[in-house]
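Table 4 source record.
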Amino acid sequence: MPGQRILGRGPRQPSSDGQWRPAWARCYNPKPAWAVEIESRLTPIIQDKFHLSTAYCDVHTCVTPWNYCDFDARVPGAARSPPRLRLRQIMLHQKKTWNGPVYSEAIITGTIAA
């Protein structure tokens, strides 16, 4: 997978029982802060290559933010607040980079935008 060079294995998000939080088959959710970091690195690369004017923010917005708290005790505010602001950061950064709207599969867009 070409993206593997950039993404690596990445820091995984633990669930409340200390296990890695599964995402898809053979995949685990990244820590919310890492998702913002990697998005900020990849979005300009994608824009330079494809010159986009809009985006579809897949995956990050398809689940309720409060279901993806980071339970890692080493993280400030662990398990206290949802990573909603991080989802908002991702979408706002993409909107600025594309200079256009960012769509998503969210059924809970209001909770991200609020």
